[in-house]
Amino acid sequence: xxxxxxxxxxxxxxxxxxxxxxxxxxxxxxxxxxxxxxxxxxxxxxxxxxxxxxxxxxxxxxxxxxxxxxxxxxxxxxxxxxxxxxxxxxxxxxxxxxxxxxxxxxxxxxxxxxxxxxxxxxxxxxxxxxxxxxxxxxxxxxxxxxxxxxxxxxxxxxxxxxxxxxxxxxxxxxxxxxxxxxxxxxxxxxxxxxxxxxxxxxxxxxxxxxxxxxxxxxxxxxxxxxxxxxxxxxxxxxxxxxxxxxxxxxxxxxxxxxxxxxxxxxxxxxxxxxxxxxxxxxxxxxxxxxxxxxxxxxxxxxxxxxxxxxxxxxxxxxxxxxxxxxxxxxxxxxxxxxxxxxxxxxxxxxxxxxxxxxxxxxxxxxxxxxxxxxxxxxxxxxxxxxxxxxxxxxxxx
Length: 397
Description:
The chain has helices at about 1-5, 10-20, 50, 55-85, 100-105, 110-135, 145, 175-180, 225-255, 260-285, 355, 360-370, 375-390, and strands at about 290-295, 305. The chain is globular, with a radius of gyration of 24 Å. It is an all-alpha fold. α4 (about 55-85) runs antiparallel to α6 (about 110-135), α6 (about 110-135) runs antiparallel to α10 (about 260-285) and α9 runs antiparallel to α10 (about 260-285). A two-stranded antiparallel sheet has the order 1-2. The protein has 13 helices and two strands, in the order ααααααααααββααα.
């Protein structure tokens, strides 16, 4: 391999190789594909920037994603302060909230570790995207400078700092649950209506964190109140809702990218969001059957009812909206139509159309979720402006 490396040291030599199909004596034969750039076997992918410049559209996409990752960093930090493993890896964690952690562990004993790690990932995404933008002379994103003004929870474990997001008045769309378990692709059937896993979460407003110690009152490690369990289960479904959006958004925007290095970034960060989603939808399925009315101090009066999804009807053949898509262990994506129905169904990330899960659609989903209740209209307008610029980006040739 060292013998052949010199053949690729100059672009002209590489073009000559591609033209003649020859290589120095003793080199292995290359087959099965076209060589359109330097192979990683011969060094780093140093010509990503040479293939195409970083366009205005590329910068718009990265800028929007950095803003979105900062929002995720903010919300996940709140979850981690209360429910995550407490250590020095995630900045700002302290004592945690042992009662909230115990309620989350009904979903899975490792929930505190998973929450901690998801938080660490989102912090790294925002930091990396900002660093990359700065390295290219582009403006970085810091929404917290002007908009981290929302109040924190006052429950034990929460830092008393300003926040970008509101986790106490959520209206959570849990249709992601049946969307992935259905043979119906929303990109093909715009009229499809997907079953809500928890219909009562999709209406009214619910808290996903204890707002104060009043929400943990009456609970002990060995005896958790129905109210605190309901808060933890709400969080479990909210985790999956947030990460499902990222799973779709990255491949949607990747289709608009021109520069190969920027494309590599999206194709590398996107799958980590999918790993998060796969984890959270699995854990949410462990919620116990219960009903809670949020009538305590600071409560919204909303009723939430969780059913035991582990006892949902077995898988139908084929799984579809006409069958039962609620079964808790159906966590793999059901094959569905893609590109052309004539090609047959295939298991994919969905949706990936701009109108359903582009940047503007993603922001609208977060607004409808209630994450920005309490923020000024200027904050939402900035997000929609960034999203619009990302959506109108086009791959240039």
